Amino acid sequence: MPHENHGAVKLPESTFCREIRSKKFYFLKSVPVEEHELLDGSNHCWCYRTMQVVGPDGSMVLPKTCRPGRTCYRSVFEASPVPDRTGSALETGE
């Protein structure tokens, strides 16, 4: 019987966390890969999860820090939470 690998598939990491937002974000036609694609003259950005300039880990939201390795980082390639009937989000895959 051949050996089957039932381990989890490692998803690719995106340059920035999928939760980072800025005014320019809403005009993007593809996933941002460079800071200038997110930042405008104000350099203002926020976390979609907290809706604040501070992320869930208590650190400032900046393109240079919202990257793989940060504890609250989520890749754009991860499955999105699925809303339940009450409107709150349920995490997928767990």
Describe this structure in words.
The chain is largely without helices or strands. The protein contains no helices and four strands. The two termini are 29 Å apart. The mean pLDDT is 84.
**Approximate shape:** globular
Can you give the helix content as a percent range? under 10%
DSSP helical segment count? 0
Sheet with the most strands, sense and barrel status: 2 strands, antiparallel
Give me the secondary-structure category.
little secondary structure
Q: How many beta-strand segments? A: 4
**CA-based gyration radius:** 16 Å
Residues in β-strands, percent = 5-15%
Order of SSEs: EEEE
Question: How would the blueprint of this fold be written?
Answer:
Layout: E1 20-21, E2 46-47, E3 82-83, E4 89-90
Antiparallel strand pairs: 1-2, 3-4
How would you summarize what this structure contains?
A hairpin with a 5-residue loop joins strand 3 and strand 4.
Features:
single chain; 94 residues; little secondary structure; two-stranded antiparallel sheet; 4 strands; globular
